[in-house]
Amino acid sequence: MQGVDHLADERNKADFDVGVMKIVWAGSRHAYELSHRFSHLVANDPVFRKDNRPLLSRKELFKASLRKAFHAWKLIKQLRLNGHPSSLWEMFVPAIKAQGSEEQLQQWLPLMNKMKIIGCYAQTELGHGSNVRGLETTATFDPKTDEFVLNSPKLTSTKWWPGGLGKIATHALAHARLIIDDKDYGVHAQVTREGKYVPSEVPRQLSYSTMVYVRQKIVFDASIALSRAVCIATRYSAVRRQFGSQNGSPETQVIDYKTQQARLFPLLASAYAIRFVSEWLKSFYTDLLERLEVNDFCTLPEAHACTAGLKSITTSVAADGIEECRKLCGGHGYLTSSGLPELFSVYIPACTYEGDNVVMLLQIDLGSLVGNLSCLLCQLMENLTQVARHLMKAISHLNSENKPIGTTAYLCRAEQLMQYHSDVLRAEDWLKPNVVVEAFEARAAKMSMACAQNLSKFNNPDDGFQELSPDLVEAAIAHCQLIVVSKFIDKLQQDIPGKGVKQQLQVLCSIYALFLLHKHVGDFLSTGCITPEQGSLANEQLRSLYTQVRPDAVSLVDAFDYTDHFLSSVLGRYDGNVYPKLYEEDICCGYVGGKGSYKHVGDSKIEETKWIEYCQHMDYQNIVLKIGDELFVSKIVCVKD
Amino acid sequence: MQGVDHLADERNKADFDVGVMKIVWAGSRHAYELSHRFSHLVANDPVFRKDNRPLLSRKELFKASLRKAFHAWKLIKQLRLNGHPSSLWEMFVPAIKAQGSEEQLQQWLPLMNKMKIIGCYAQTELGHGSNVRGLETTATFDPKTDEFVLNSPKLTSTKWWPGGLGKIATHALAHARLIIDDKDYGVHAQVTREGKYVPSEVPRQLSYSTMVYVRQKIVFDASIALSRAVCIATRYSAVRRQFGSQNGSPETQVIDYKTQQARLFPLLASAYAIRFVSEWLKSFYTDLLERLEVNDFCTLPEAHACTAGLKSITTSVAADGIEECRKLCGGHGYLTSSGLPELFSVYIPACTYEGDNVVMLLQIDLGSLVGNLSCLLCQLMENLTQVARHLMKAISHLNSENKPIGTTAYLCRAEQLMQYHSDVLRAEDWLKPNVVVEAFEARAAKMSMACAQNLSKFNNPDDGFQELSPDLVEAAIAHCQLIVVSKFIDKLQQDIPGKGVKQQLQVLCSIYALFLLHKHVGDFLSTGCITPEQGSLANEQLRSLYTQVRPDAVSLVDAFDYTDHFLSSVLGRYDGNVYPKLYEEDICCGYVGGKGSYKHVGDSKIEETKWIEYCQHMDYQNIVLKIGDELFVSKIVCVKD
């Protein structure tokens, strides 16, 4: 980083070891070094430049992304980096890995790894999203030719949404209903040459484990997207000044306004919270794989529900958070050069398409290339409904031998939690981890129990589930938020070295939990978990935590270790030197202005019919003003460079 | 509308007179006829076609928008329509009208009206947004030449954000600090030829009235943007089916899912609520103008605070609502052809730049042309803070002669409202207008009073205001929501003819109010306005209202009377014939598919190094699959048309 650091004052204020925090954020020293090396490699490679993107047409953009993808693949091969090109189409490869037979794996994996084939995932049809059983495409076995005849009989059966990959793929993994001798077997694999259907030897559970893998990746990606936006908004909030000047002193930094803090700092805390819950999910997944190896499926249902729910809430928080960060940057946040509009539009599908390892690993911009959106966006509710079903099942098993485990274990204490009333007396009480966790447990348990009770009033459980689905979704959200809060607190039980690092994380953890409590105070009050007074105390504590975290804010986003290239945001520049770069790089919004004084020029007559042509002089750089006898109406003449 | 109406069943279900509702929505029969005529005129004029927009480069798009603007202007002149071209740059003209002297008006208005000049508004500087006093550009009077020398001394003083107009304007309204003989007069007008500063003869209050005008237009525009998105999402939710098929019956319409209803119907109700509050604001503004004519400034402070607050909350609801509608359309909502992504990105600044009369009136797409963003986005909080100041002032005057009036009149009953506890016993009680209004009044009053009390603890009121600003903002929101709810209820006191029209509006009004109550139940509970049981009853009533409004939903969006051209959304088509058009019009997302059966073709060998070139065959239309001995992995070859 050359030149003056406009944020040096901010960095000097930090009361913790940023270097250690970088390692905590990355997950381990090894992960940090790998990611650091990768990101600088990419930042310094001209093939990965991004600055010309806003002016490219869609087709040029598409081609540029392909060029980058190919270059990334070559790089990975050359440098023997830990990663492989197939991760460019993350849905294609894991699905084959999970559902393919040994023979199929041997045929396709080497081709994929050598990039001899490019595959896309063709499940969704124009008229059918997540309901796989409703797919209309059929695969009819023809024993004469030993081939399958694929047929999409109607317009609505058109395979849809493989995204950019659909345009360049050489192969597709197409989902279809199997037909043999006019009999419809549904979506299945494996038929003998004689035309006999043979159920797959691959256990169905393994395909669930792929889903778990993909979803935990999505949670991880949510932490990256959100932290990226938070990094931009935090740095710019420290640079930008507005109002509050007294006797010629500089105006107040925007980050010092309480309303700014109350919106920004919870997002900073959320980025860390999502990061740590994704770390936990990863270890959960590793444990799951080990269990599956020995045919132990006991944690699979929980993994399934847990990842579905966490995917839903973290991707929503990230998407909303990016948009909020854009607003926190004021008008300039709307500029393409702020990096936020593109981050938002690229993230929206990213929170749903499955994985994009290389994209994130190499921190390049392939958003326009990949994009298996499926209809997963509408799965937000479906995923939460899955969690709700899992919760209702757990409650129904309370009196059986098959008691709730893992993240639902607290429901075993449901009876006790139903009687819970917080005993908080002072604001500081809300800093105690067990006080917070108990309140979140009681809220989640009471909401779930109320749903279970209301469900029992319906003769047909399906009707009840449909009727009460909005309440069930709210209970599922409460449960998922409890998980995130608990895992953040668990993280703090670990041994974390480095001056002040653990203290910072404790502050962020409390901000995260108390912000959620404030946002959902209606839940906590209506379930009787807390009193209005206790709610006010939590709010009071929250405000004082904002003041506490303020001096460390810039360093806490530095800890993400993002390069300026990755952020691709003038507002989020590491050195805070925002305005000159904004002036140079703004290529998308018109502006009127000039360096130094305006010069007097002759009058310019413009005929009304000529203005369309006139406007084509778009490449002017300087604007010269004719000053008449008015102060505030001045003539502008565009001059060519 | 030709062909089959796929939504005919939905339209037959409606239990009210849609024709009359169209007039209610438009505000009057005259307004309806005008808007109907305009929108069909535009829809049938080839110059205004939009279908090629997604593939245009930024420069082409800019030129196309100019062409449309110019054509719109000619049309207005030819047809002597009620509107004038100057409204293309709404900030420039009203500002001159409000702040210009008689002489200035005579010089500039005719030129503007004949489009001999094109003006932009150059207030904001690169480093300064809403803080006009902080502007750095100076205008120094030079008595020798009788000219002002404008100087933007620093990079941060560069005039910024006139948007697209900055590129084509012939004139700019530039804000600068007046300097005479080295004395800095701040931002002011009018200097004599001898170099003597003369305060403007235009009363300062008149410039406030422009702001009131502009803001009430923004609230109106919010109702248009939100209703447009709601129209698309509602129609598509009735077309789209997913899951729930039994014994070969069609799948369930998405609109029948309770979770969909709980997210969609409040937005439908909000569109109507915002519409009616904007109607009220318009009459408030007319009244204000009449008062100002006779130097009666008594309603000005309220108008100022009221429009600031309503602008903030309605634009946020609209922006968030558009995004929510996109999610409600599942994956297809992300397609450009859904119309929602562009609506969102164009609306975001639209909720802040001032007006765009022609754009909305003629319903064309000038989003890329106009765009005086200023730094108004970050004014969300500032505006609400203004409201909060107004509320605190009203409370401080409670015991004086200068008692709160208009929308703050309820604060006169503060003492009584502080004792308020809702007496709701049954769910139906929540349908009574006075029950709802009282609860909202009590909540707003209690929140404001609590703020006033906490403020009084600070020695320095400014410190207190800064420290408590997040709470003050929440109180301001509660106050503004009360206004919207009250004005909706007031509307229902009017004589509204037409079968079932008033009944529908009553349902929507209750949905709006009870949805807000549910969303902010924490406020109502913590202020003791309602008990948790009363909150549950409100929720129960809300659910039953969703069921009630369901059969009328499609007709309620038909009442907006939007043409397919205006919606420019395949998903929101009037006839509901979504899929064939989606297939034809999708030009932005890759897809894999084919009409009819896939054909067997020869193997195609693709070398790994060739794939970049290969992908350039982007203009294929058909995809042919080679079927191997696998079911789900099939080779795809792109063939040129």
Structure, described:
2 copies of one chain form a homodimer. Chain A is of the alpha/beta class and about 650 residues long. Among the domains of chain A are: about 100-200, Butyryl-CoA Dehydrogenase, subunit A, domain 2; about 400-560, Butyryl-CoA Dehydrogenase, subunit A, domain 3 (Up-down Bundle); about 590-640, no CATH class. The first copy, chain A, contains 24 helices and 9 strands. Chain A has helices spanning about 10-15, 20-25, 30-45, 60-80, 90-100, 100-115, 165-170, 205-240, 260-295, 300-330, 340-350, 355-360, 380-395, 415-420, 435-455, 460-465, 470-495, 500-520, 520-525, 530-550, 555-560, 565, 580-585, 610-615, and strands spanning about 120, 140, 145-150, 170-175, 175-180, 185, 595, 625, 635-640. In chain A, the strands form 3 sheets. In chain A, strands 3-2-5-6 form a 4-stranded mixed β-sheet, with no helix packed on it. Chain A has a two-stranded parallel sheet with strand order 1-4. In chain A, strands 8-9 form a two-stranded antiparallel sheet. In chain A, helix 10 packs across helix 13. Chain A is globular and about 90 Å long. Residues about 85-90, about 350-380 and about 585-640 of chain A have low confidence and may be disordered. At the A-B interface, helix 4, strand 1, strand 3, helix 7 and strand 4 of A face helix 4, strand 1, strand 3, helix 7 and strand 4 of B. Strand 9 (about 635-640) of chain A pairs antiparallel with strand 4 of chain B, so a sheet runs across the interface.
